[in-house]
Amino acid sequence: MTEQVDNTVCPLCQANNQCGVNAAEPCWCTKEKVPAELIEQVSDEYVNKSCICKACIEKFNLATANIKEVK
């Protein structure tokens, strides 16, 4: 039996991802560049089924920027 994925939940932190891809207005997620390294952290069952939330994207980008500054 296959369990349906809740596409309103971030696959990384399980918070509401605020995705409005099916809304009348374009969602923030359609304009956001999500790093491939972050997408790789999503388990296969959620890939292309549930958006990573903006907070997780921002946290990843900040951590990546900090690592680059240290080098």
From TrEMBL:
InterPro entries, sorted: Cys_rich_CWC
Origin: domain of life: Bacteria
Pfam families recorded: Cys_rich_CWC (PF14375)
Name of the molecule in the record: Cysteine-rich CWC family protein
Species of provenance: Thalassotalea castellviae
